[in-house]
């Protein structure tokens, strides 16, 4: 508590008192009134109090108060202070002598709270947000407040007054777009300086514009996983947009120079990333990661370090940093997220934004990990160690209990990559192994049956072990997978099932397609159909394949195509040529069976992203019922399609009639002009009245013309 002190009268004021010989202690100052608007250079007491209040806020805005600390005797002061510094020092820089724990003068024990002073108010606010509710142990859960808040709390009246009742104002329905009567899907594109959102209107064979904005983002746009928000990137940070009728800004996330973002699967959190060049060229880049609460915009946790600290594991990212740095556990609960470090996997609880059980999972030489898409199960890959004496291994670890569910040792491993099936039923581990001579490698697959007892593992090797694996992809929500394998420009494509013909849990090959111009696989989100695509160097060759019937539905080509993306319902496919090529920029929309619906050329084309849909609210039983009675439900839509078809036919007729009328009008206009110029043409023909060449009489006229005159001196001949 600050003590109230009476300030001495300034010397110049004291001199004036003596000169006019007035005893100010006898003067009633409250009775003195100054003219309106005049203060004679004397500040009022109210103004001084206001200045003191502002000075108080700016002076203590970087101080927090931590309550519910353990009460300890003097011999444990140093240990407690070390624990507090370790926890709060990770969030920001604590000033010199910036940690003070009051001591009871009678017992000589701490009072159970402390004051911490950071360098900046932002660090203090972050520390308060991240550590309030931190569980030190069962008996001590931190209660953290800003020091400035205490003055606010002291002003709260002791008398209760009922809160003001505000009229209910319903919020915008952010899922309004899902209620489209035509059942259409949206997509966003970026071309030039414009970002545009469209409906995919297959009936009209063209997209319908929903929203357009120039300079909406400074680098890229990204949909949230459930399609609720569209995120844009700016120098000051990121922003999310959405709404019932258009795209209004819903929240800003302050993070200067942000380069990358990532949503949690349930859209509760947003991770932002930035890097900063060091002042010393020998130092590594400094990296900042923030985790925001999407609805409130508050920073839930901040991570800082060198780029090397975040470069372990995974592929992609920027400046050597693996992205996403934090990987979220499967499901929409957003309960856990994890990152890979040196010899450890750090798993965090989103509710506290702190390490699970306050410690990382120690795994020597761990190189990569991935979450099951559904369950809190980690798949870890550890390469060989001890100069080959220790085998590589893949482990499955259950969270939060850290129980190892299954482990598989692998030998002579060159590289390893893990692929989860979308329902978390299977895990495929692609293993590149050295041959005995160590001069070459061959590839095989370790297939985990996750949902079966004891998690059995099958080994799959291709008929030709030396075939290079070009691409691998699971069928979404299914039991099949496809592999592109081979070394030449026309590799083979093989399809496998995790079930044998007798429905026994054994992998079996369904078919192999020989010599396909394909280097990428794109399964429909509902399974069954797959696109075999030859992108970039293979000039956009497309084959639409039905895996149920093991037959090709159609082939097509989108010259120089760089990207292929299915819509979330599996009805339509977008292929595009982005600005990596200078020519042919734009996108095509196809039906699931390979029919080209429409083409949209756009210069400087950068992105096309379908808007994701949240999972269906229908039960599996209800979906099965709809599937069985599809003909009954389809009658309504067939009638609508027929109406649209007739409308399109009528529109087409009107368009042709309009073009014909324009042509006839143009012809009549030229006839009129020709008639007006008839006299002029007759004059140019020396009075010949007819325009028909057949009526002309030809007359030959000889004309002599002197071409040149030259003088020469002839030599004298004797």
Structure, described:
The protein is of the alpha+beta class. Among the domains are: 63-155, RRM (RNA recognition motif) domain (Alpha-Beta Plaits, 2-Layer Sandwich); 467-615, YVTN repeat-like/Quinoprotein amine dehydrogenase (Methylamine Dehydrogenase, Chain H); 627-660. Helix content is 17%, strand content 35%. It starts with 10 loop residues before the first helix and ends in a 34-residue tail after the last helix. The model is unreliable at 1-22 and 36-58 (pLDDT under 50). Its main location: cytoplasm. One of its GO terms (molecular function) is RNA binding. Residues 689-701 have a biased composition (Acidic residues). One of its GO terms (cellular component) is eukaryotic 48S preinitiation complex. It comes from Araucaria cunninghamii.
Features:
718 residues, alpha+beta, Alpha-Beta Plaits, Methylamine Dehydrogenase, Chain H, five-stranded antiparallel sheet, four-stranded antiparallel sheet, disordered N terminus, Eukaryotic translation initiation factor 3 subunit B, cytoplasm, translation initiation factor activity
Supply the number of helical segments.
8
Q: Between the first and last Cα atoms, what is the distance in angstroms?
A: 144 Å
Return residue spans where pLDDT drops below 50 for at least 5 consecutive residues. 1-22, 36-58
Q: Let me know the largest β-sheet.
A: 5 strands, antiparallel
CATH class of one domain: Mainly Beta
CATH fold category name of one domain = Methylamine Dehydrogenase, Chain H
Tell me how many strands there are: 43
